[in-house]
Amino acid sequence: MYAVAGWHPNDALAAPDDIRPQLREMAKHPKVVAIGETGMDYYRMPSHKEGGTVEQDEIFKRKQAQIFQQQLEVAAEVGLNCVIHQRSAFADTVAMMEPFVGRVHGQFHCFVDGITEMQSVLAMGSVLSFTGILTFKNAQSIRDTLAATPLGKFMLETDSPFLAPVPYRGKRCEPAYVKELSEAVAQVKGCSLDELSTATCAMAREFFPKLK
Ligand SMILES: [Zn+2]
Known about the structure:
By secondary structure, this protein is α/β, with parallel strands linked by helices. The chain contains seven helices and six strands.
């Protein structure tokens, strides 16, 4: 078992002003293979709740940006990549990462965006990761994005305990369900499970250089 270590954007307001010293320490652990999940998430903003204000939204966004920046800095410093959590904040996430292109690669986890967004991610030298959402009946647009994404540019994940794939929808998701996800992905890509596995495993080893 390996870990990624980071500060999630949804918890940004609880972060100290400088998370770098602690993160540097954690990144040294032989089994910490990336920084993350880190990134930007504008899906649930303070103003969406009763009594929340747009001023609070701005404070939240600024704090997310501040700790994302710090995590990108540490990643560049220690030579690790970042697992990126992005929701309803694609443009800002990409803008924050641009100065780090060539030094830090992102894995945009649980990718649900379109072909244009996929192309901007790949153009930065970053990659995608798809979850069981892809097996949902109403997820044709994600299957279209996958169809346009070359083998060798995406990984697969379950994001358990959430997002169990068909036929386990609504149940607790398990890492083992990557099998059901893989079957759906192989069908979309028109490749064998062996070819898919070879491509995603090779990618994981390249992206997480400390994997043994
Ligand atoms: Zn996430």
